[in-house]
Amino acid sequence: MTWLQQVAIFAAGIAAGGINTIVGSGTLITFPTLLAFGLPPVTANVSNTIGLVPGSVSGVIGYRRELRGQRTRLLQLGTASLLGGITGAILLLTMPAEAFKAIVPVLIIVALVLVVVQPRLAAWVKKRREDGDAAAPEHGGPILLIAVFATGIYGGYFGAAQGVLLIGLLGVFVHEDIQRLNGVKNVLALIVNGVSAAIFIAIAEVNWQVVALIAVGSIIGGQLGAKVGRKLPPNALRGVIVVVGTIAVIRLLTS
């Protein structure tokens, strides 16, 4: 690997770490970069996932203020993410990537629609619950748990735009400030990436030079992303999510 390639991977790690903390979809920067430099797809995916874990930790630390008072929510949803991440990582190592990648653009588009209509949809869900004299589940209820588990499977398998899916789902089912939900999203993504990385380290082929470059870059990006992300008003944050998610769909469909 030339020094220019190493610089490019390091820079991609910074960008991915920042974007993952604010929105998600950082993998769509690092993964194509690794493929362009000749890494096999599975090795690139595995090495990328491991390398982005330190950046996820950095992003969670950056959002620690927004996570206060959400311990029960994190335990419930985090368990679903953990089980989903394990399932997805195993699928990656046992199934052809094409089988799952075919539905990735559809999942991202659904997530973007959820993000756009989230305020109205959340208000409608809340009204329906109030009209039915049923207390709204504080942490989203069983439907959200199942959806987070399914997103964990996706995240463990491929991971691109996992954050977009999570923030879209959380915004609909949990009546909470979007910045606090973004903090939850970062923790759930970290759990999925972390458990997937542990499995990959144990049984998959890893390019450790790539891991190191992405890891250092993503740590820097995670801190930068937290500083930028928490300053964005709700509508601006939704706008960033939509733009990044749309670019992700276009890149996946044209790759």
UniProtKB/TrEMBL annotation:
<keyword id="KW-1003">Cell membrane</keyword>
<keyword id="KW-0813">Transport</keyword>
<protein>
    <recommendedName>
        <fullName>Probable membrane transporter protein</fullName>
    </recommendedName>
</protein>
<keyword id="KW-0472">Membrane</keyword>
<feature type="transmembrane region" description="Helical">
    <location>
        <begin position="236"/>
        <end position="254"/>
    </location>
</feature>
<dbReference type="GO" id="GO:0005886">
    <property type="term" value="C:plasma membrane"/>
</dbReference>
<feature type="transmembrane region" description="Helical">
    <location>
        <begin position="143"/>
        <end position="174"/>
    </location>
</feature>
<feature type="transmembrane region" description="Helical">
    <location>
        <begin position="7"/>
        <end position="31"/>
    </location>
</feature>
<feature type="transmembrane region" description="Helical">
    <location>
        <begin position="210"/>
        <end position="229"/>
    </location>
</feature>
<feature type="transmembrane region" description="Helical">
    <location>
        <begin position="102"/>
        <end position="123"/>
    </location>
</feature>
<dbReference type="Pfam" id="PF01925">
    <property type="entry name" value="TauE"/>
</dbReference>
<keyword id="KW-1133">Transmembrane helix</keyword>
<keyword id="KW-0812">Transmembrane</keyword>
<feature type="transmembrane region" description="Helical">
    <location>
        <begin position="74"/>
        <end position="95"/>
    </location>
</feature>
<comment type="similarity">
    <text>Belongs to the 4-toluene sulfonate uptake permease (TSUP) (TC 2.A.102) family.</text>
</comment>
<feature type="transmembrane region" description="Helical">
    <location>
        <begin position="186"/>
        <end position="204"/>
    </location>
</feature>
<dbReference type="InterPro" id="IPR002781">
    <property type="entry name" value="TM_pro_TauE-like"/>
</dbReference>
<dbReference type="InterPro" id="IPR052017">
    <property type="entry name" value="TSUP"/>
</dbReference>
